[in-house]
Write a structure and sequence with these properties.
Nucleotidyltransferase, domain 5, 24 strands, alpha/beta, globular, seven-stranded mixed β-sheet
Length: 486
């Protein structure tokens, strides 16, 4: 048995996987975050540990026999968070999370200090990343900064509690702005710019390699065998990719979650920071990935559902599905920047816009416009990664918005590639963590990283593709025309 631990922002998930790819059980423990000031987002690391102990108790009760057969543990986690520790490994302050926006000024300062930072790290400096948070601490909490002995990412703090070892892995470390992503090692240049050095960093392994062994006292307390190995694991998106089997060049997924993601695997480092594309190391050796991120995806459809007074998203999705092609052609164009935008504009001031509204437009027309606008945003992301033409290579489709057949079909037609809605994709990160444990225990990539079963496949539709290709240039023209008005 292999245990996957996925430390998310709103909850922690455990999943038990056997060597026949059967998931025996999964359990969840909720988490909350604190916002002590506007734009701040923090969590107490001790709450992660309490959630883990709660989930362990649930899982032991749900699958006692399987629990006792665990051979290895894998970790997945929310990326970019800063956990700062003193020389005795005590937490010095609450962890600053990925969705914390306080360090905007420090991003500008970091890129001034290291003019070639984008080439080293493969990414723009953004407030969500870890390095600007440490610059903020040095400026605003100097007494804390002076005590820092180690900086760990959230899942790696859990690893320290599990194994006593300070270790990270390449995919999560890519989101710190301290990793030389092409060389897969810490960048002393980036660390020096933040007042840090290599001694402040954990040791690095690949996600599919062993990182340590479960502490004997913890193994006894949890009723586990001695010498349970803990694998490197992965950041949440990379772990999710391993969970759905996206590990080879050209494979990837599209996520219609609260935000929208296009994730593509590569066998080489391909930075494109000028278009706000993320270039990260994958959780497997010799592999990287590009990732475009838009900040409002399924959340935009939830917003228009509430705005129009429709009963629920499923009802509005059905109304959109029933629209004729002529009604779709006459719908407004929608810019989906309700929370600003990352790829390709990197503009927190960008706003949502409807253009072309008429008095005969209905809730269904607005619902279609939002689905289409989000699809256009994901098309922008694919284009930013140099993938603007049709492709026969299918991508997995995940996230809450993927439940809408109408949206899935629209997106397949817009992206110009088949989309496969996966079974069990909601546990992909925890499953990926368990698979990385299996790999570290000697499993092969071909054996372990199989694709999830397809619940339903969506092929590009010619009529929809033609409609979208006519409307997409109008969408593309709006942002540059309106930028000065945001």
């Amino acid at each position: 048995m292999y245990l996957g631990i996925d430390l998310g922002t709103s909850g922690l998930k455990l999943l038990l996987l056997d060597a026949a790819h059967h998931v025996h059980a999964s359990v969840d423990a909720p988490l909350s975050l604190q916002r002590p000031h506007p734009t701040w987002s923090e969590q107490q690391p001790r709450d992660w540990w309490l959630a883990l102990e709660s989930a362990v108790a649930q899982l032991r009760a749900a699958a006692p026999h399987a629990w006792q057969q665990i051979r290895a543990i894998g970790l997945s986690g929310q990326m970019h968070g800063a956990v700062v520790l003193d020389h005795q490994s005590n937490v010095l302050r609450p962890a600053i999370l990925w969705n914390d926006g306080r360090a905007e000024a420090q991003c500008t300062e970091l890129e001034r200090l290291v003019p070639n930072s984008r080439q080293i790290t493969g990414n723009l400096a953004m407030p969500g990343f870890t390095a600007p948070k440490l610059l903020w601490l040095r400026e605003h909490e100097p007494a804390v900064f002076e005590q820092i002995s180690k900086v760990l990412l959230p899942k790696d703090w859990l690893r320290l509690q599990l194994t006593g070892e300070s270790v990270s892995e390449m995919s999560d470390a890519s989101g710190t702005l301290w990793l030389d992503v092409g060389q897969r090692c810490w960048s002393e240049t980036m660390l020096t710019a933040c007042g840090l050095d290599l001694s402040h960093m954990p040791r690095l392994v690949e996600g599919s390699q062993p990182s340590g062994t479960l502490l004997p006292t913890l193994a006894r307390q949890w009723g586990l065998p001695q010498h349970v190995m803990v694998a490197g694991g992965g950041g949440d998106n990379a772990a999710s990719a391993v969970g759905i089997g996206a590990v080879n060049p050209g494979q990837g997924f599209v996520s219609l979650g609260t935000s929208g993601v296009v994730f593509l695997v590569s066998d080489r480092y391909q930075p494109a920071p000028e278009l706000a594309v993320h270039a990260f190391a994958h959780a497997l050796p010799g592999r990287w990935h590009q990732m475009s991120v838009m900040l409002s995806a399924a959340s935009a459809f939830g917003w228009v559902t509430r705005l129009t007074g429709t009963a629920d998203e499923a009802q509005l999705s059905q109304q959109v599905a029933d629209l004729s092609q002529s009604r779709r052609a006459a719908a407004p164009i929608f810019l989906p920047y309700l929370s600003g935008e990352r790829t390709p504009h990197n503009n927190p001031k960008a706003s949502g816009v409807f253009i072309g509204l008429r008095s005969d437009h209905t809730a269904a027309d607005l619902g279609y416009a939002v689905m289409e606008g989000v699809s256009f945003g994901l098309m922008d992301g694919l284009r930013a990664m140099g993938q603007s033409g049709p492709s026969a290579q299918p991508l997995a489709l995940v996230g809450g918005g993927a439940r809408s057949d109408a949206w899935a079909q629209l997106l397949a037609s817009g992206l110009g590639c088949p989309l496969q809605r996966c079974e069990g994709a909601h546990t992909a990160a925890a499953l990926g963590a368990a698979r990385l444990a299996w790999l570290a225990d000697g499993g092969s990539v071909d054996q372990v990283c199989q694709s999830l079963p397809t619940e339903r496949a969506f092929e590009p539709d010619t009529a929809s593709a033609q409609l979208l290709s006519g409307r997409y240039p109008r969408y593309r023209a709006l942002y540059p025309a309106l930028t000065h008005l945001f």
